[in-house]
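Usage

Read records sequentially. Each one opens with the input sequence:
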Amino acid sequence: MDVRRRVRGASVFGLSAALALSACGGAAAPTDGGGADVPKVFGAFATQIEEPWDGVIHAALEGEQEEGRIEYSFTDDIGYAGDMERVLRETAEQDQPDIIFGDAFGNEEAVRVVAADFPEIAFVFGSGGGPAEPNFSVFDNWIHEPAYLAGMLAGGVTESNVIGVVGGYPVPEVNRIVNAFIAGAQETNPDVEVKVTFLNSWFDPAAAKEAALAQIGAGADVLYAERFGVIEAAQENELVAIGNMSDQKDLAPGNVATSVTWNMVPTVAYVIDQVIAASYTAQDLKDFSMVAKGGAALAPINADVAGGIPDDLATVISKREAEIKAGTFRVDINEGTPPGSTIPDA
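and closes with the structure output:
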């Protein structure tokens, strides 16, 4: 079968839930029937695959491989300072994948340069900017709506009226999540105080835990783990935590009340369908990460956490969630740095 595809007229070379852990990269095992009859996809991740953002993308790609729709390999923990550009060029020249997915942001300039040099490959990366013809598509995690719902839960269960949030960088993509969380907390508890600490790092579990412990010392009894490492601090202190990106209940079943989840399956499936149909174009894939298309959701509420979740609070959250899905309630998008945030020197 001839499976050569095209990206806006440029031929794409040879189409040929636990996360796979790796310190320096790896390849997911091919499924029976995979190979040259399916698109070849490469995942390029700046951080370790355990980092939730990269983990969500990776999990969606692994799912597509398990279904036999793609041949998938990846490299994680690539880092910055030119390493991403090197890895992408080597992969594009030697392996000639049909699609390259990745995290970008800190590596965005380098990724866009490489994409321009390989117009026959579909590049699909996280970005706060727009797509670039002919082959560079962008996505982002638009999870502010479930973040608002998680904030409602946090505001409703706190006994100290102090909540902690530990985030990566104070960039628009993170700020809108944190601001939505704060707004939700204020809906159910107008007296709540939300302490926000940014790490100036995307993946530093030790620093995230330390920041969370400092917030606990300042009175926080509910913690939003926008970054990996916070849940451990909550567990050690028998406090309530809220996960991020994926359902993180299994990390601490007695402490994680819910998670703000991002689902890359709709985005990944759409791009693969386009490449298979020889109709791929550079696009902003934002809509596929929204609640309306199944790209974002609040994980099921875990009533077994310490102190439990009041039934009336769960009912209020469920009602608000239904209103968001129906389009009758809008969560504001505020991408400014949350007031009073603690931000270390870069």
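Summary fields computed downstream for this record:
- The chain has nine helices and 14 strands.
- Confidence is low (pLDDT under 50) at residues 1-35.
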